[in-house]
């Protein structure tokens, strides 16, 4: 299984905001820090706002902040929200028919694997990702001086 760039960037946005909890952060700053397209990031941040993961404020002094405490942001919830299609194989998709249905064990096996993958994510929150020892390395890399 491979998560989309949309989910990858959504996780990066939340991590960045979690590492900068005492100030509003701009999309431009995040895009510049990660070296990703600002236009693409705007769409991701908009979607995160719709899902209640971030709060956006427009205008002078605006920016982004986490909408909830990091301990209240479940990684499984985020992945389910950002991934459009969790179907590992075609037979997972509704309306798909397969000649092997009923005789193939692959769908059951992959369903269990996906369930285990999601169970691991469901047991973790953004706060877990921000815990030391990784925090010191991440903080040094991603906390910045106030933007110009």
Poorly predicted ranges: none
Q: Provide the helix percentage.
A: 40-55%
Could you tell me the radius of gyration in angstroms? 18 Å
CATH superfamily (homologous) name of the domain at 5-86 and 126-142:
Winged helix-like DNA-binding domain superfamily/Winged helix DNA-binding domain
CATH class of the domain at 5-86 and 126-142: Mainly Alpha
Structural class: mainly alpha
Largest sheet: 2 strands, antiparallel
Written as H for each helix and E for each strand, in order along the chain, the element string is HHHEEHHHH
Number of helices: 7
Give the integer mean of the pLDDT values.
86
CATH T-level topology of the domain at 5-86 and 126-142: Arc Repressor Mutant, subunit A
Task: Based on the coordinates given, report the CATH architecture of the domain at 5-86 and 126-142.
Answer: Orthogonal Bundle
Question: In summary, what is this structure?
Answer:
The protein has helices at residues 5-19, 27-34, 38-50, 75-82, 106-122, 126-129, 134-142, and strands spanning 54-57, 63-66. The protein is mainly α and 148 residues long.
Could you characterize the architecture of this molecule?
By secondary structure, the chain is mainly α. The protein has a domain at 5-86 and 126-142: Winged helix-like DNA-binding domain superfamily/Winged helix DNA-binding domain (Arc Repressor Mutant, subunit A, Orthogonal Bundle). It has seven helices and two strands, in the order αααββαααα. The chain has helices at 5-19, 27-34, 38-50, 75-82, 106-122, 126-129, 134-142, and strands at 54-57, 63-66. It has a two-stranded antiparallel ribbon with strand order 1-2. The longest helix has 17 residues, at 106-122. The protein is elongated, with a radius of gyration of 18 Å.
């Amino acid at each position: 299984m491979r998560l989309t760039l949309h989910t990858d960037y959504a996780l990066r946005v939340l991590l960045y905001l979690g590492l900068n909890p005492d100030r509003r952060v701009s999309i431009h700053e995040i895009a510049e820090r990660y070296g990703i397209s600002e236009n693409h990031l705007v769409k991701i941040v908009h979607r995160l706002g719709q899902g209640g993961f971030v709060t956006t404020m427009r205008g002078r002094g605006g920016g982004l902040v986490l909408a909830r405490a990091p301990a209240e942001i479940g990684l499984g919830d985020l992945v389910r929200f950002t991934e459009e299609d969790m179907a590992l194989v075609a037979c997972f998709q509704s309306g798909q028919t397969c000649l092997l249905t009923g005789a193939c064990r692959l769908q059951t096996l992959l369903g269990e694997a996906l369930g285990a993958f999601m169970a691991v994510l469901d047991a973790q929150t953004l706060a877990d990702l921000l815990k030391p020892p990784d925090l010191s390395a991440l903080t040094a890399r991603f906390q910045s001086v106030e933007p110009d």
